[in-house]
Structure formats: C-alpha cells, structure tokens
Amino acid sequence: MHLLPCGDTGLLVELDDLAQVTALHAALRADSPPGVVDLVPAARTLLVRFDPRTLDRAAVERAVRAARPVRTSHTGEDVVEIPVSYDGDDLAEVAGLLGLAPREVVAAHTGACWSVAFGGFAPGFGYLTADEWSHDIPRRAESRTAVPEGAVALAGPFSGVYPRSSPGGWQLIGRTEVTLWDTGREPPALLRPGVRVRFVEAG
C-alpha cells in the first residue's frame, strides 16, 4: 500500500490489484471517519476525498491503514437486473475464442453475479467483475467508431454496458434498453461501485 496526497482534499491509495481495491473500498464504505465525503475506486487505486475542515490528512491516513479489508459477499444485497437481447455482433467471435457455443457464452454471462468494481470511460459506465466469470476476452483488433447506447460488451475480465453511443473496442455480445445514466435521477448512474448486477436474457 502506498499513500499519496492528492490536492488539499484527497488521498490516493495505490494497491497491488483490483481485488485489494475492492476489499479496501468495501471496508471504508462500511466504516470510515466523519469527514470522508467520497471514495473513488479504480483498477489499482482508491481515491479518498475528505473535508479538511473536519478531518486532516493524517487522520485519513490512519483510518486507511487501520481498515480491515473485507471480501464482499453477494448475500443479502440488492441486485440490479439488466435484461439483455443476446444478439451482439461479436457473440459468435467471443464463443469461438472461448471454444464455446454462443448459447454457452450467454449461459455463463447470465449465470454470474456481477459487481461494479469501478466506473470510468464515460459517465455511467461501470467495469463489472464476477467470481464466476474466469474468462479474459481480448479487445477487438480495430475499435468501432460508434458503439450503440445500451451495448453489452466484454473486454479482459470485465463486462460493461455502454451508457451512450461512443467509440469503443470491446466485444459486443448483446444490447439492453435500460438507461444507465440519467441526470434526472439521483444518483444519475445506475451502476455505481459496489452495486451488484445480474444480466437476464430478455424475453
């Protein structure tokens, strides 16, 4: 663990891998001192934002070092269900890469309980991981100039849903009508770090 100041109101915690980030994020969400105003996880870092009027950096550092990272559990937590039409342009290619039939890819994707590890790339985009998903999917050799809003995709160990039309190099396996980012909603992002997600096949 390496702690770095990040302006007057932030502390950046560098960790070895995403599993450590997820565990520390869960621990601090459950028990952080008054004055911590936000926790922003990424692939190998956790940004702790605090109010310097009520909490100094030294106290934040002590809280981070004293935190007992916990492995998150699916039990007893609300799950966001996302209906998906599994007709993505890259589904057959992904199946070929994995040595599976397309229906087996769909079964594996819907059979996993996913969790939002961190957000990024675009407002509302969540990088989802699942213990049940052990595949590492290569990105496309050439990115698309426009991926449609609602596209459900895979890249590396992650799954994700494009919240709006944008360029992208992930492998597209399906699409959903669920709105991922809505400025009229509080909070605007449906998929936030720590949220559990279950993909279900649309009827």
From TrEMBL:
One of its GO terms (molecular function) is hydrolase activity. Keywords: ATP-binding, Hydrolase, Nucleotide-binding. Residues 1-191 form the Carboxyltransferase domain. It comes from the Bacteria. Coiled coil: none annotated. SMART domains: AHS1. InterPro entries: CT_C_D, Cyclophilin-like_dom_sf, PxpB. PANTHER family: 5-OXOPROLINASE SUBUNIT B. This is Allophanate hydrolase subunit 1. It comes from Saccharomonospora xinjiangensis XJ-54.
